Each structure stands twice: as C-alpha cells, then as structure tokens.
C-alpha cells in the first residue's frame, strides 16, 4: 500500500530513539563503588525487553558484591581495565580491557574492580530486562581468588 506523505507515519514516534549522553538517568539502582546511568529503558526509549546504560568505577575502586537476579548482563569495556571477581566467595577472577565483552549469567554473585590506580573504568551495560534488579550481597571474599581463563575451540589463549 503506497504511503500517503500527507499522513504522519506511525514510525515517527515509534521508530528510532536517540538518547544523548546528557540525557542519561542516574536515578537507577546503584551498587557501592560504581555510578550507573540508564540510557535505554522503557521510560527513555520505549524499550520493553532490554535495559542499557553506563557505569563508571573510580581509579583503584571496587564495587560491593551483588547479582542481578534472573537477568543476563553484558558489560562492554570502553576505557580502563576491569577485574571481575565472581562465585559464592568471589573466589574466581578474570580481567578485561578496552573492546572486550563480559557476560554475567543470572544470579552470579560478582564484583567489578577497577584494576588501574590512575584511570577511571568506563563501561557500557546491557541487561535482558527492564527491571533494575540489583541484589547487594554481604559475603566474605576469598583471600586469593583463582584466575579463570576461558579456553575452548575458539579461545585458545
């Protein structure tokens, strides 16, 4: 059916939405040691299945242990060095740098650490749902976490 250019398109207000950097919403669930800001939510963009935002962790800082319920999370490192600890006692550790992606499965207790003493860690977060689920945990961390390297048919390092 040909489009009538005199009639306003449905896509004008239900299509692409740009959320500019100065429009991020800091009124979102927080964890001690980091600053989250929501970008793509139902309120800002009409998203129904995804949540996206940013996180900044100050130099040499670490977050409290937490998990995100049944949500899957993806962290993309933009700047800095992320040291991730996870497990019932944060007994596992791995690091990621600029351009790396981190996948956090549902209910995994974890902690983000800025591994650099003089540079802010800047990341982009994407979650599989709209609920701002952050369950802060009071757990005793392991003294010496064991480093985990992902090795399979694709990752051979």
Q: Short summary of the structure?
A:
With 157 residues, this protein is mainly beta. The chain is 5% helix and 33% strand.
CATH homologous superfamily identity:
Jelly Rolls
Strand-residue fraction? 25-35%
Shape: elongated
Record field, number of beta strands: 11
Helix content: under 10%
Rounded mean pLDDT score: 87
SSE pattern: HEHEEEEEEEEEE
Major pleated sheet: 5 strands, antiparallel
Q: What strand order characterises the main sheet?
A: 1-2-9-4-7
Q: C-alpha Rg, in Å?
A: 18 Å
| CATH architecture level-2 label | Sandwich
Q: What would your notes on this structure say?
A:
Helices cover 5% and strands 33% of the residues. The chain is mainly beta and 157 residues long. It has one domain (24-146): Sandwich (Jelly Rolls), CATH 2.60.120. The strands form 3 sheets. Strands 1-2-9-4-7 form a 5-stranded antiparallel β-sheet. It is elongated and about 65 Å long. The model has no long low-confidence stretch (mean pLDDT 87).
Topology of helices and strands:
Blueprint: H1 11-14, E1 35-40, H2 42-45, E2 51-57, E3 66-67, E4 73-79, E5 82-86, E6 92-96, E7 101-104, E8 110-114, E9 121-127, E10 135-136, E11 146-147
